[in-house]
Amino acid sequence: MSRENEKLFIDIGSTYFKLSTSEHLEQHFRNFNKDILDDLTHKCGNIIKRFDKNDVHICSSANGGLSALIIGISQSFSLKYAANIAFNSGINIIDTVLYQNIEEYTPPSDLIDVVIVVGGINSHDNIFSASLYQYLASLNYSNIVFVGSEKEVPAIKDNIENVVILPNIIDDRLHIVEKYLKEFLTNLYQQDIEGKEDIKHLYDITANQIFSTPYIVNKALPFIDARFSVVNPFILLDIGGATTDIHYSKDLVDDNIVTENEYDRLVFKKLGVYKSRQSLIFAAKENEFVYELLMHLKVTENIFDEESEKATKILMQLAIFLVLCKMSHYKKAYINLKLLAINSIVLTGGITKVLNIDEIENIISFFYKKILTSDHSPATILDSNYDIWTLGAKEKELCQ
Amino acid sequence: MKVITGVVGNDIHVVANRLIDLSLQARGYEVFNLGVNTYLEEFFDAAVETGAEVLMISSLNGEAEGWAREVKLLKAKYKQLDELIMMIGGNLVVGSGNTEDIVSRYKNYGFDLVCHQVDLNTGLDSLEAFINDGKIKERCQ
Ligand code: B12
Question: Regarding the domain delimited by A229-382, which CATH topology (the fold level of the hierarchy) does it fall under?
Answer without folding.
Answer: Nucleotidyltransferase; domain 5 (3.30.420)
